[in-house]
Specification:
Elements: E1 3-5, E2 14-18, H1 26-44, H2 51-77, E3 81-86, E4 90-96, E5 102-108, E6 113-117, E7 126-131, E8 134-137, H3 144-159
Antiparallel strand pairs: 1-2, 2-3, 3-4, 4-5, 6-7, 7-8
Helix pairs in contact: 1-2
Length: about 160
């Protein structure tokens, strides 16, 4: 599950870290690019020794380069992290965007409220935290089942205050 409590739920200070699911690890990325390059080269073996090979080679390299750039771009876009800290009297959320921008939200833990929008949000089971006059999203990058579980965990933790 791409979120975890880094401290025990019974501790006076709780911390939850959320991140998007990374389905393609570094080794898988390298294997996919290599396999793609190999599969594209198989038909070009018949062109060895001809001038047509040199005409095809730039397009083969452009295709592999395009796949590499697309996968790298997707990986950079998934570099999101959210850290929710629940102290005895405050709730503090730090959201780090893929560009490295940091957005923060905090409020009195007693007034913090977690809400789940079944169908009204941008994604099904949209989870938000509200308090101190603001409502912020949390875990929008998680899957539907993970957001449902996140809502239950947050509601349980905030009730413990």
């Amino acid at each position: 599950m791409p979120y975890e409590w880094t401290t025990a739920p019974e501790a006076p200070r709780q911390e939850m870290r959320l991140w998007p699911h990374q389905s393609l690890p570094a080794r898988g990325f390298a294997a996919f690019v290599l396999a793609t390059f190999t599969m594209i080269l198989i038909p070009t073996f018949t062109l060895l020794g001809t001038t047509l090979l040199w005409g095809m080679l730039p397009f083969v390299l452009a295709a592999v380069g395009g796949i590499y750039v697309a996968l790298q771009s997707n990986h950079r876009a998934r570099q999101i992290e959210e850290v929710l800290t629940l102290d005895s009297d405050t709730a503090h959320l730090v959201h780090t965007t893929p560009k490295g921008e940091v957005k923060e939200w905090d409020c009195n833990r007693y007034w913090a409220r977690v809400t789940k929008y079944e169908k009204d949000g941008p994604v099904p089971h949209y989870v938000t935290l509200s308090g101190h006059g603001r409502e912020v999203e949390i875990g929008a990058f998680l899957s539907e089942e993970e957001r449902i579980s996140l809502y239950d965990d947050l509601a349980r933790s905030l009730r413990r205050a």
